[in-house]
Amino acid sequence: MTDLKTTSRNGINMPLVGFGTYQLSTEEAETSVTEALKAGYRHIDSAEGYKNEKGTGNAIKKSGIPRKEIFLTTKLFPGNTQWGVQEKTYEATIETLKNQLKELQANYVDLYLIHAPLASLRLEQWKALIEMKKQGLAKHIGVSNYNEEAINEILDAGLEKPEINQIEFHPLCARPELAQFLNQHNIEPVAYSSLAPLSTWRTAEGQGGEVLAEKKQEEQSVINEVANDLNVSEAKLLYRWGLQKGYGILTRSSKPERIRQNIEVFDFSIPDNQMQRLNALNKNQPFAWAANGLNPMESAPSLQ
Ligand SMILES: NC(=O)c1ccc[n+]([C@@H]2O[C@H](COP(=O)([O-])OP(=O)(O)OC[C@H]3O[C@@H](n4cnc5c(N)ncnc54)[C@H](OP(=O)(O)O)[C@@H]3O)[C@@H](O)[C@H]2O)c1
Questions:
Q1: Second label for 253, Cα 20 to 30 Å away, from 32, 52, 123, 275?
Q2: What does the pLDDT read at residue 21?
Q3: What angle do CA 70, 131, 84 make, to 5 degrees?
């Protein structure tokens, strides 16, 4: 079997299991990233929009782990006029990463992503990412929530291609055509919200996991049966599904015990027949942004 622990695609030395920090306060980000680093995670995923980069930076600094041993990702919030947030220009994009580096207390990030194609200035923002890679502020650059059309805009403009695309991927949102497209273009897929099909996903007050809950009820019994057949938790099953599809995955929990459990995904595998049962659940249904009232992959305004 191919190595499911790290990838070297596009020259990126990235641990395939990462720890995400969405919906954590600054304090929770610090304690959770501290736990994650203790548990052995060496890939941390942050974002300007999570408003907690300081906590992540504190945890990394206090861990004493050499910076070069941690793969640190963060993302640009591109702006979104629908939400009344000004679109970032080329200069503002560069300024934003510099400010994020201060919060993260780092000289560089390993990966910088445009969080979603929500701005008409997205090609200008992409050019700024290319420049920041040249300057060494970001070792690698990529996008998130970009569909084929948004990626083709970059390729058609003759610009350097994204190295990574971070996407909502799980059995109910498998997007086989996009996965194939990424493969053809040698763009590494990283899956987020792997646990969105579960009833335990985003249940704390204000996390929004109840939105569209009716769209996953039927499939939950199949996920439960497969997990029982393999004698693993449903969470472990879904994270492992992403790895076996060839994706990096991002886990996330505010609970130390779960943080430790969620990285233990290498002691079993999902046999082909059970992968097929899970794959048959696909209906290209995203959940992660639903509480914000939009599907980020279908919200790109016309290019400016
Ligand atoms: N680029 C984007 O647009 C985008 C969008 C969404 C997410 N992301 C990234 O991807 C990361 C992961 O996605 P996500 O935050 O949606 O997380 P996730 O890993 O899909 O699920 C986390 C949720 O599941 C619960 N959970 C965690 N471990 C569990 C377990 N072992 N058993 C049962 N329930 C469990 C957590 O609750 P507790 O905290 O109570 O354990 C939390 O509510 C994010 O943190 C972020 O870094 C990126």
A1: 275
A2: 98
A3: 90
In a domain, 22, yes or no: yes
- Give the residue, out of 24, 166, 250, 257, with the most ligand 1 atoms within 8 A of its beta carbon, to mutate for a pocket test: 250
Name the active-site residue from 22, 41, 50, 247.
Answer: 50
* 94, 122, 161 from 89: Cα distances, Å: 9, 9, 20
How far apart are the CA of 243 and the centre of ligand 1, in A? 16
Query: How do residues 204-221 score in pLDDT, each as one tens digit?
Result: 999 999 999 999 999 999
Q: Are 241 and 281 in contact (CB under 8 A)?
A: no
- Whether 1 maps to a domain, the answer reads no
Is 50 one of the annotated active-site residues of the chain? yes
What's the CA gap between 256 and 248, in Å, rounded? 21
Q: Residue 76: its pLDDT value, please?
A: 98
Q: Relative to the CA of 194, which ligand 1 atom is closest?
A: 20
Q: Is residue 220 part of a domain?
A: yes
Residue 135: other Cβ atoms inside 10 A: 11
- Could you tell me if residue 263 is inside a domain? yes
Which residue has the least CA distance to atom 20 on ligand 1? 193
Nearest CA to ligand 1 atom 37: 253
Per-residue confidence (pLDDT) for residue 48, from 0 to 100: 98
Q: How far apart are CA 231 and CA 225, in angstroms?
A: 10
pTM: 0.97
Q: Which CATH number belongs to the domain containing residue 195 in this structure?
A: 3.20.20.100
Question: Per the structure block, which two tokens stand in for 137?
Answer: 């502020």
User: Residue 90 corresponds to which amino acid?
Assistant: Y
Query: Could you tell me the distance, in angstroms and rounded to a whole number, from the CA of residue 202 to the centre of ligand 1?
Result: 7
Query: In this model, does residue 3 exceed pLDDT 80?
Result: no
Ligand 1: which residue has its CA nearest to atom 14? 193
Q: Give the total number of structural domains in the chain.
A: 1
Phi-psi region of 301 (alpha: psi -120 to 50; beta: other; left: phi over 0): beta
Instruction: Please report which confidence band the pLDDT of residue 156 belongs to, taking 50, 70 and 90 as the band edges.
Output: very high
